[in-house]
Amino acid sequence: MRVGEPRSAAGLKKRAPLLGVVAVLALATSFLDADIAKDPGQLASLLSEASGTVVEPKDLRWEPSRGIIADLVVGRFVLFLGSAEPSSPRDVYRARVRLSPEGRPLGVAATYNLTSTPLGDDHALVVSGGRAAYATWSYGKEQAITALDLTGEGTQSQATKVADRAMAWVTNIQRTGSGAGIGRVDVTLEQPAHRVGLALIASDDSLAIDLADDERTVDPTRRASLDLAKGELKDAPAGMRADAGKHLPKRLVHWAVDTVRAVSWIGPAPIAWLEEQAFATRDTVKQTLFRVTSSKDALATQPEEDVPAAILDTSQASLDLGHWPPPAIRSMWKTPEPGEGEWTTPKQAWVKKLPAPANGEEPPSPFYETFVRPDEERPYAKVLLVAMDMRQLDVGMEAGSEDPKPLTGSPGTGRIPRDPQVYQRVAAAFNGGFKTEHGNYGMMLNKRVLLPPIPGAATVILTKDGRVGMGSWGKNATVGGINDVPTSDILSFRQNLDPLVDNDKVNPLNRWQWGFVLPGTSMQTERSGICVTNAGHMMYAWGDDTSATSLGKAMRMAGCVYGMHLDMNPHHTGFMYTNITEFKGRQYKSELLTKEMEIDTDRYLLYAPKDFFFMMLRDPRPKVALEGVEWEPDPGAQPAPSWMAGLWRGRSGDVELLDIEPGRASFRARAGTKELDPSAKGPEKDRARERRRGDDDEPARTPKTPPRGSELSEDDAHRVLFALSLGTSESRRHRGLAIDGQVAIPISNDAKAGVLLVSEDGAISIVPAKNAPAVPPSGDAVELPLVLDEGAPVSTHHVRGEGGPPVALGITPAGRVLVARGPELAAVVDALAKAGCASAVLLDRGAGSHGSIFRAGTETPPRSRYEDTTLYAMGKPLMPRGFRFEPTNPVEPPAPKKK
User: Fold this and answer.
1) Residues 738, 601 within the same domain
2) H or E element at residue 372
3) 18: in domain
4) pLDDT by residue (tens digit) across 27-77?
5) What range defines the domain where residue 257 resides?
6) Do 664 and 536 reside in the same domain of the chain?
7) Cis bond before residue 366 (omega within 30° of 0)
């Protein structure tokens, strides 16, 4: 089978005599398809008019006939591809066409858009019996393949009660024209293809999938088979995933609202009006009852525009800058309720937390809870807050099985990923944003754009290095445009409404519609939101009787600098803790934050119709692509907090490795006293002088005043993790050296030399000496033999036999620093290259002691200065990874309305 070869026409010819079914009158109808096929143009014209799309005759596929009488009275189903304009992306439609006994079209009874993906071109449509399949092309590639069961949803429907089944039947009629619905299996191509070929194999009820990965390939480069009965891939290459669709039951009120909204002559406006009246009436009754039955709860002070200021950034105040748990929140009421504003750990003992390291320091809970009462008019209205430690937690997001409705390809899975490396770390999950029809707010999931971003909308972004940013999207309607965040680093994002909090202001854009269509005041109902604090932690906010403004006030009281409104209304919002061992046998626990939340405790775990976020315990082990390396915390002092190691050790074959995690250390080079002492002559000195000397060795030979540039500042000295000797420059072959921006020895332009650069703020990098690197202002530069350049080994260097085994230092593009020691230089360089280092230098300036490491907290601690030039590493506290971002081209705020 050739990839991209048309299969539909050939399939129709083979099936033509078989597509008719014996009618109730037992009349032979084998001529039916042949008559219909005589004038496909007429049928295409009828379908085009009925659906309001452009339909080509070649894109028609008949479903099996249900008999002459049924085809005449009810109509026969046909699948077809329709586009809004000629040559624009096509959707898959279904229509009921009434046919005469001779098989001529009499009219189109109804049409149904089965895909609604305006950015994706659905094509390669094939039909065989009760099965159909098609592929989706977008962004220049084949992105997904979808198989349909035209006979019905079957076990994909989760409705078990009679009422649920009845509601599902009506919904299916509305969406597909059939009460049984349509079953669906989506095959996602994590590695998109250039072309696709599909064939339905009736003999084993499967779908054959052929993929070509370049334009010139005729034969497939990847093949897979989808078992249509089980919804599982067989013999599939890596990067393909099959997910069966699910039809989830809904609460009666939500089903009724969605069903009525979907009726074209009713629409969302009357529903929004009814919602507003109902919520307003409920709020009035509740306030009246509270005034009658409750004592007056007075405010501590008159409400002011400015609630307590945001937490100050005290980034240099202490070693551990985690600001965890958050500070208590002062109540706005004279008589606070018990526990109001006081942070407590979850009551569930099984909530996941990081294990205690060998040093015994217990990590704090990654979650803390409290509540506040931010509404001056409703003292009874509480907003619950969950603070999430963004040092210990990673954030994930997933699209629902129904929303967001993607503009291309398949919907989300609606469940926590089934990868054990993911679900066994999940500690909590909570709701996402609005349905697509309520704003079309953007979402991208693992680089796949489901809905494009809306300029100016409040946004949460996830980056590939594990950071979480919140801010308002810029003017661009494409991915990117964020200061200090490269487009390639953005992994996922989700948007919803305008910002609820920005810096010290609640509702900065003065929005007055928060979740409904018609004008009016904000409704008191269940609302939820997410925000980021100045310290970099995330918070989830939820209230069962609150307005958007009160929700924002609660966020600001908690110290948030940016907040986003998430979903609202009962049965749509909820936060749950979870502890998953395995999904098989339901080996998991889950519990809601409060019993007031009206969602099922299996939501997010099994199937959710709408998108959601999930929080995972961070895996602190190095993300290094070296097979077979068992990492363990390196003995000795660790950067704060010590329960999250920043220095790790491992072994790859005969090579010992020391890993310094990105952001956990700053660096400073200090010149050896021999390099700065003009009387030192280098290797011709007595061999005894080549020994490693500290500040208390042979004091008679050490100057009373240490040479400038040989010692660290007092602040740096108190934070040293280790000292790494680099040796000294030979007199016959000088290697460059600059300390604190001052050049002591000029840097050469040797093609085999590299320069270890240290910026003023302690960041480290390696550049080839031939590139004539500039010495950083107030920074350091040390010339060393270059052994890796752009990931490729540099020609082998001579290694001194008397200096001990070779030691090299490499840096990955992500900023990870690795020190490798081994018996052979080639093995050391190979290990660094496989670990992802783009560049590396041999720690040997030519003479003296080199490659020795002195670790704080061990029997060989670092000293204040050495005879040899030395690289010091100073501990940096682990910082929370939440941040507020700024767009490069922000949307201008609307002009204030004239009074």
Assistant:
1) no
2) strand 367-372
3) yes
4) 333 334 434 445 788 999 999 999 999 999 999 999 999 999 999 999 999
5) 251-299
6) no
7) no
